[in-house]
Amino acid sequence: MGRFRGGLRCIKYLLLGFNLLFWLAGSAVIAFGLWFRFGGAIKELSSEDKSPEYFYVGLYVLVGAGALMMAVGFFGCCGAMRESQCVLGSFFTCLLVIFAAEVTTGVFAFIGKGVAIRHVQTMYEEAYNDYLKDRGKGNGTLITFHSTFQCCGKESSEQVRPTCPKELLGHKNCIDEIETIISVKLQLIGIVGIGIAGLTIFGMIFSMVLCCAIRNSRDVI
Length: 221
Known about the structure:
single chain; 221 residues; mainly alpha; 0% strand
């Protein structure tokens, strides 16, 4: 009986440690998602009227899952401390929802990468062509693209040089830079999503083991 209670206490502390880590991970996920959405290149690009809203779906899911992770982390601590099967069962269900959300984010980031890149490249080419037709019409849009991706023009930068960053040395093809930058960002989002999904698996295992141990201890008593 003493060994059984000792094992139960060990599992409880493991779950408490997991929930603390899970709460911190939720905070990091929220910060990560908001930084990608409202900071740097993405912030500048999102100010345009033609910004692809679906491009941000993965980030919105990521931020929402991060907020849920923080709430669930606190919820799981309460369940472990009170040794409540009901609370632990609800905790397991919440982790399952988070797992599905994070896997969705990761899959969306990897699978939707090509579509997002092509969409942004099309936006750039439209702005590029509009500028060549009317030097005043597409000026602001091209400046935003060139500043965001630190590039200038396509095959040549001579025709759009006035819209390029002054600090940019040499020529950088914007079509290539768009593909590189967006690909890297979406890969990071996908890796974070899949990584958090893997973390939730351990939480589900700990919660179910503790729940079963609590039930068995009560049966013994």
